[in-house]
Design brief:
Number of helices: 16
Structural class: alpha+beta
GO molecular function: nucleic acid binding; RNA-DNA hybrid ribonuclease activity
Order of helices and strands: HHHHHHEEHHHHHHHEEEHEHH
Number of strands: 6
Protein name: RNase H type-1 domain-containing protein
Strand content: 5-15%
Domain RNase H type-1: 260-353
Shape: globular
Oligomer: single chain
InterPro entries: RNase_H-like_dom_plant, RNase_H-like_EbsB-rel, RNaseH-like_sf, RNaseH_domain, RNaseH_sf
Strand order of the largest sheet: 5-4-3-6
Pfam families: RVT_3
Length: 358
């Protein structure tokens, strides 16, 4: 007899892996996908031949990620569509021409809003127009701009979820809360299963807690209390060191300047950037506002770009650049984000840095 863990590994490594090649080539019918899922569900719940065992959770729940209360099994139909989507980048090559939407180095905002839906128009307008660069195909749903079956699968699953809930914001907020609870539950440090559980509760002076948990109305309430109990226990065992991890600004060496840049982003409010150029005596401060932005990474990039651009304009070369964004550093020193939504901005930033260093 296989344990639950053994069955999970067997399903993921064998049953759901065997049809992968076929799913990358053919659009398998929904009915066949449902049949495969039914066979896997029967195996999971221990059903054999003509037995009729109860499936305590729906298959839709089991295919949810573990951090959302499922077991991470694949939805066969969604995975089939994600595998077929690998052919999309090749199909899109040679079909892009954004020049008609550009007017004198910037987007023709009126035309963009006339052609595209409001949500898509905002995303387009948040991208900076870069003269002298050719259009390239990039995957918007990955921070590096690279397509992956994993991201395509997640998009289809999220889309199905939105269709079921019809975009209800209260449902989304509830899902976020449950996701946070499940993440903490999977990452928690729990005592192994033991026959003398009641005695252990007594030894740990948690008998009253056990009785309170037994009175809860739902499994989710029990999980929330267990997670909180685990967090409280970890807090009590961690030393309280004041100032740990804090860093103070340090003066630059003599005859050098230090440039600190930062960006601020809020999904429902305005975005902005700012930077400070200082020697060991004074400071030059400059700030600006971003009209359209997708996320904090873009605003951080704009802050760094504007700071370096200003340093070039005033003729500063002996300068140290500091940013609190690791992604900005990676973007400026590697090719990791070349195909991202902000690839053009990164290209211009690298160009300025190269001139600054010459």
């Amino acid at each position: 007899m296989l344990s639950r863990a053994g069955k999970e590994i067997l399903i993921k490594a064998v049953a759901q892996a065997i049809p992968t090649y076929a799913m990358g080539c053919f659009d398998i019918t929904k009915s066949l996908c449902d049949q495969i899922s039914l066979m896997i569900a029967r195996f999971w719940w221990g059903q054999q031949d003509n037995e009729h065992k109860i499936h305590w959770l729906s298959w839709e729940r089991l295919v949810q990620p573990k951090e959302k209360g499922g077991l991470g099994f694949r939805d066969i139909h969604s995975f089939n569509l994600a595998m077929l989507a690998k052919q999309l980048p090749e199909y899109m090559e040679g079909r892009m021409d954004a020049k008609k939407l550009v007017e004198v180095g910037t987007w023709d905002e009126e035309l963009v809003k006339e052609i595209f839906w409001e949500e898509d128009a905002e995303l387009i307008l948040s991208l900076t127009v870069h003269e002298g660069m050719n259009d390239i195909a990039a995957w918007h749903f990955d921070k590096h701009g690279l397509f992956s079956v994993k991201s395509a699968y997640k998009i289809h699953q999220d889309d199905m979820k939105r269709r079921i809930t019809r975009g209800d914001p209260s449902s989304a907020a509830h899902d976020e809360e449950k996701t946070l609870v499940w993440k903490k539950l999977w990452k928690g440090r729990w005592t192994r299963k033991c026959k003398q559980v009641t005695e252990i509760w007594k030894e740990l002076n948690l008998k009253q807690v056990r009785l309170e948990l037994a009175d809860k109305d739902s499994a989710m309430e029990i999980i929330r209390d267990l997670v909180k109990l685990n967090e409280d226990a970890q807090t009590m065992t961690q030393p309280n060191i004041k100032g740990a991890g804090q860093q103070c600004w340090k003066r630059p060496p003599e005859n050098m300047l230090k440039l600190n840049c930062d960006g601020a982003y809020h999904a429902t409010k305005s975005e902005g950037w700012g930077f400070v150029i200082r020697d060991d005596d004074g400071a030059v401060v400059k700030a600006g506002k971003v009209e359209h932005a997708q996320d904090v990474f873009q605003v951080e990039l704009i802050a760094c770009f504007q700071a370096v651009k200003y340093a070039m304009e005033i003729g500063v070369t002996n300068i140290i650049i500091e940013s609190d964004s690791l992604m900005v550093k990676q973007a400026a020193t590697s090719e990791a984000y070349r195909l991202s939504d902000f690839g053009g901005l990164i290209w211009e930033l690298k160009d300025l840095l190269a001139m600054l260093m010459d």
